[in-house]
Batch of 2 targets.
Target 1
Amino acid sequence: MEDRLAVLEAALKDSLRSSLEQLPWHTFSASVVSRHLAKEIIECSRKDKAGRDFAPDQYTLSIHPRETGELQSSPPEVQNQLASDLHEVLKEIGFLIAKEPHITLATDPTLSMGEIRVIAWHSSDPLEFTDEQKVPAVETAEQPPLNAFLVVEGKRHYPLDKDLVTIGRLPNNDLILNDPHVSRRHAQLKSSENGFIIEDLKSTAGTLVNRRRVKRHRLRPGDVISIARVQLIYGEDPGGPPEVTPPYAPPFKPPSDRHKVTPLNLKTIPQENTRTFDLNE
């Protein structure tokens, strides 16, 4: 295991160096990034029925915002090149991969300066992938994906186990984003026969998928959703969300009775609604 880890780390370092140099990552060398990537690949790889190793195909690399200058200014081509180089290395080392790898670069203010976090997962089960190679494909209506989830700001996960999930600032949403730039009812996720679809609900800041503003978009594993300043990463994995991300918890609890009457016969106003809202949201 250690020998393979060292070989993978060395191969990644040589292959990814030119792509990483195009990023505004001032304090992270190719050696550091390659070491974290190699460890995550080894730990998250899975074996199929024939004992072959399948590497994960979805990756998120997060660092503190101050380490980047302005990460959002890095061109998408750099992420695509990183993913392509990674794919070549995995094939050279002997890993199989169910789908083309996808790499997301993100910032996370909860990380310490000089700290990097790599999260990897499989967008499909290697066992299902190898079975599909043996059985001729038959066109059938797909069911909504099982174990779909959102990674919220790179540190929490929200399971998509409902047909309709609303996203917004108010506490009556399913996924509450406590950010003043998020609209009260910002967007929603709806399940369909082919997966989940995100719809913008005429929000003020808009909804972006992979940096492109959308009104309605069918999600694929690895898609990065930007709700105002909050980043969500859509994933599908039969094994569930990455274990390093704890379950999502609302930033505050909705009141049990929004119209509770006080002894003075005055209705209490929930604290979260005492802020000033934009009537055009």
Note: The CA atoms of residues 94 and 201 lie 46 Å apart.
Target 2
Amino acid sequence: MVDELFFTNNTAKNLLPIDGYTVFYPHFLGKSLSDKLFLQLKESIEWRSEEIKIFGRWVMQPRLTAWYGNAGKTYRYSGIEMKPLPWTPYLLEIKNKVEKQCDVSFNSVLLNYYRTGADSMGWHSDDEPELGKNPVIASVSFGAERLFCLRHKKEKSLQVKLKLTAGSLLIMTGETQHHWQHAIPKTTKPIGERINLTFRKII
């Protein structure tokens, strides 16, 4: 029903040509609220610098992260085990707005803080077992605009690129995580700080 909701009750169109559903709302939050929340998140979140395992090697993640959510909703990826910190009032404010748009209840959120253009997110899918078969991933962006890339796992020529603006909402659902990878590439261009929240439901 979630997939149908996106296409019958909203004007946003599916960004993916095949094998999944991804929709984008560039003005989900207004500028004043987005700017306010960016500062609050930057100052109040308990940011961490994590070491992850990639191709058998331990390396530092090129960004800061944090994990908040309901008690017991532990998240594991790339050799990391993240136990949730309790929800803050600002996170709950954003969560409630996202849930109304998605018609989905989330119990956790992964936060990423990109300090400069050198901070990035490599190609990956959000397909960990604890997210379930067809997870709904709702991503809200604050701060500087960054390029977001999607590519099909088998048909490598199929790629989608868009700029994630401050206050925007990107929703990935259906079979997207089975067939597509996504990334935030590095850039040498002078660029400001960015904070991203990806709401999830740990089962």
Note: The chain is about 20% helix and 35% strand.
